[in-house]
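[step 3/7] fold_predict: job queued, chain A
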Amino acid sequence: MTRRMLDDRTIERLAKIIVDQDGPYNRRGYELEGLLRRAAWTDPPEYDGSQRVLWLADQMSNRNGTLDVEHLICRVCDPIEYDGGAAVAKDFLDQVNSVLRAEQLIVTLVGQRPVLAGLSASDGAPMFSEPEDLERRLVALVKDEATRTMLSRRLAETRICEANGAYTFAIIGIGSMVEGILFAILLERDAEFRAGKALGRDRKPVRLDFASLDFLINRAHAMGFLQFDATKFMHNVRDFRNFIHPRKELAEQPDFDRDSVMLCWGPVRALLNDLEEKLLGTESAVSS
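[step 4/7] structure written:
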């Protein structure tokens, strides 16, 4: 999502959709509170008993232009939010997108994970780009300052590659950042991994210096940090990252372009949303 302010009328319309007052999915005050917590809002507010649509619109307006609003929009369209799963989520997805279209935004599913994207002016297709506020988001997810500095440096180099048409190396850079993020998160939050006791595919312990990106993705899923669909699509990014090996490029001739980089940023957005929902504000529930 381009970190721009949504129009006040857009916020009002979104609040009406989310509350669904008198509708089949009517959200009461305490349910709105729970929704904001599950959307990983920073310091989520307590419902004050006022008119729900106006209250929610005020909360969104107060955070207009922030990541919290993006998280809420995605969570409302997330199949995991509803007992009815994908069918109910699709209803909200269609309503939300009918409002967001005027803002040149769209919620689309990467696998079954909702991600906010821009709309192409030419054909109305979703356009993924580097997640906004990525460096600030890393500060919240990764505790070690030296690791954050390293990841920021790799992000800067990835931007240079993408901006100058070095698409293969931009994709390699994206995969490298993902590896660094997952390694840091597991090192800081997974005691078994930190001790070299986490099991790989062969059911043998994996030493830290032999932890592959394949293992890191699967381990993050096993720990509950990533949903199944984000895990599946991150393996696609991992496969693209493996074109760092010239023999693989010679064998498969991928011919990467700007769209290829965009296809990698989409799963990264889903990954960040999952990590933030699962980890931020829930540290006590994670192995230490």
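[step 5/7] annotate
The first strand starts at residue 105 and ends at 110.
Residues 167-189 form the longest helix (23 residues).
exit 0
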